[in-house]
């Protein structure tokens, strides 16, 4: 169980960092938020992979296609975050 959690966090960090490198512009995200971005991106990438290909993780979680899907999902989540939720709530006049 601990190994699965560590694997999810490491893949999340890698996917989040790669997504931040691929998306242009400045993202003010800390390392924990980068991990969260990667983990959420992994779920989005896995869900999209299931919708497109109709397969789940029966062959194991740590596969090259899964990591690529995680990065693609993290890029999608990051772009949505920058467009919708990345704004400051306090505006100067």
Automatic annotation (TrEMBL):
- Where does the record locate the signal sequence feature? none
- Where, by residue number, does the polypeptide cross the bilayer? 29-53, 65-84
The residue stretches assigned to a coiled coil in this entry are none
Q: How does it sit in the membrane?
A: Multi-pass membrane protein
Q: State the source organism's domain of life.
A: Bacteria
For this protein, the record's InterPro entries field holds: Transgly_assoc
**In the UniProt record, which is one GO cellular component term?**
plasma membrane
Keyword Membrane assigned: yes
Indicate where this protein resides in the cell. Cell membrane
User: Where is this chain primarily localised?
Assistant: membrane
Q: Which UniProt keywords apply?
A: Cell membrane, Membrane, Transmembrane, Transmembrane helix
Pfam families to which the protein is assigned, alphabetical: Transgly_assoc
User: What protein family is recorded?
Assistant: Belongs to the UPF0410 family.
> Which PANTHER family would you find in this protein's record?
UPF0410 PROTEIN YMGE
Q: Name it.
A: Transglycosylase
Originating organism: Mycolicibacterium arabiense
């Amino acid at each position: 169980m601990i190994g699965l959690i560590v694997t999810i966090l490491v893949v999340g960090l890698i996917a989040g960092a790669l997504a931040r490198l691929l998306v242009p512009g400045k993202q003010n995200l800390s390392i924990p938020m980068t991990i969260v971005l990667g983990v959420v991106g992994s779920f989005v990438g896995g869900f999209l992979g299931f919708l497109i290909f109709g397969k789940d993780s029966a062959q194991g979680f740590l596969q090259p296609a899964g990591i690529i899907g995680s990065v693609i999902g993290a890029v999608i989540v990051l772009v949505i975050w920058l467009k919708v939720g990345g704004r400051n709530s306090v505006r100067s006049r």
